[in-house]
Design a protein that fits this description.
By secondary structure, this protein is mostly helical. It contains 3 helices and 2 strands; from the N terminus they run ββααα. Helix content is 47%, strand content 6%.
Length: 126
């Protein structure tokens, strides 16, 4: 029997083993992180606590955001909106892309919770 893809540890990249962290238990505002061990969980939680609930992006995420710049530029050009963005730095453009990704993911989580009848205001997920 073939096993499906398993999400890697958010810190070291090994197979996660059910150690979970969500900043302040606010699943509607912060991402869930999965870890392979208690040691990675503790280190990842400390990073997230010091970075407003965020762990640094992986190399793959960083590359994906960089590659998304071209698609954003194409849409801005088609809509005649490129001028205000022309002199912006890559970091500023990346912030816009990340905000869109975060908003999309948050909306998907809220919709999934609504389907499962999970109240949005419940800060404890169990």
């Amino acid at each position: 029997m073939a096993l499906g893809w398993v999400e890697p540890c958010a810190l070291c990249g090994r197979q996660q083993r059910g150690f979970l962290y969500c900043h302040l238990l606010l699943k509607d505002r912060y991402p869930d992180y999965r870890f392979c061990s208690r040691a990675c969980l503790d280190a990842g939680a400390a990073l997230a606590k010091g970075n407003n609930g965020v762990i640094d992006k992986t190399e793959m995420e960083t590359q994906a955001i960089k590659e998304a710049r071209r698609f954003l530029a194409e849409v801005l050009t088609e809509m005649n909106l490129m001028a205000p963005f022309h002199d912006r730095s890559a970091a500023e453009i990346d912030r816009i892309i990340e905000a869109c990704i975060d908003g999309f993911q948050d909306a998907m989580r809220r919709q999934a919770d609504a389907v499962r009848n999970v109240p949005f205001d419940d800060i404890i997920p169990f």
